[in-house]
TrEMBL record:
Acyl-CoA thioester hydrolase/bile acid-CoA amino acid N-acetyltransferase domain residues: 20-151
Organism: Seriola lalandi dorsalis
GO biological process: acyl-CoA metabolic process; fatty acid metabolic process
Protein name: Acyl-coenzyme A thioesterase 4-like
UniProt-listed Pfam families: BAAT_C, Bile_Hydr_Trans
Amino acid sequence: MDSKQCCVKLSVQPSRGLLDEKFIVLVQSVPPGLQLTVHALHQCEDGHSWEAFGHYTADASGNVNVSEDPSLGGTYSGVEPMGLLWSLTPIPGSKPGLRMRKMNVQTPMEVTISVYQGHQTEGFMDQVALAGVVVERWYMAPGVRRIPITEDGLTATLFLPPGPGPFPGLLDLWGGEGKLLEYRAALFASHGIASLALDYLTPEITMETGKMVDNKYVEVNLMNDILCERISFICYFKNLIKSQFKCAVCVSGSHVQPVDGFLKELLNAGKTRYNEENQVMFRELLLPIPTDPSLKVDVGRLQCPLLLVVGEDDQNWPAYESAMDMKEMMERAGNSHLLTVLSYLNAGHLIEPPYTPHFEQFLLCLVFAVMALWGGETLAHSRAQEDAWRKTLVFLRENLYATLVLANKYFVYLGNIMDT
């Protein structure tokens, strides 16, 4: 087929939407039976490019509907409406261990969707596409307000949903890599939950003094002034047990609290294991789960609903084993009715919002740079992310009408939940 003689129509609807919103990719006006490749290309803020593609055959009407028609190959196969996002991988020649993360949530994630003739697998940049469109995926819905917070030495960003409020509140914490990460909090605010993204590992005060913050860093009642008297935030799990929070969510985390606390001491303990590809599996650091109750957060004292989200093939942290131990602890204490465990077969570490690409390995820079194995299979991990996000939103809406702590991947040295 001469591309100059073919008026291929390509549409993506909606072309602008939230990251967790599905879109429909439709190719029209091609000869029936024509083999086509639908390709997605995204350039991250760090300059690295990612791509995904599926192979299709036009139906008798000369159409391809990615939401209904099966991909015959590519980075995904079968009927996968959002395969062009969740199967994104670094383009050939990229350095290993890359991870896609949106750092500036005030701009969209732009993805170029293109159609090529034939079932192509490489060299897309050297070919002329039959058609192409640019779609935008946002973490911030229209009307969401972003407010940097620096009072009392905090390094944080508050996201408020549209409207006057008051709103239910959420404190969003990340794990051992540190940095102020805003994208999940922004997406929660887009679903009506005021969210505070807080950096408690590498805040400005820690960078200036060289000392890690303690509980007082986050026992500041900022949200009372901004939202309503029902909302405050305390980030650590021990305080969660002592306080009147409505609910908590822990993603890929553990209740084990090593005595020394810091990752450096753990690495020096000699329990770190590497596979044949020299990828480190941090999960061994906390295994076997200790029986000594002094080495674990006493979840038996928990008085609010707790949602645990874990991948059963998590090679970075023993989240599944920890979840099972927490379940046993709460059953013995008589508060297991408060616990919900979302456990996903063949899912790996860090179950993100839906359609986020899966990272089996990641170049992690903590005490030193290591290639961390996160585990999981791409399709299973994608399914887990979509299911967990939907159920997490339901969990929050059912329970969150006062205060919530979202505890993801704690790496805390004061005897609390820990992760990397």
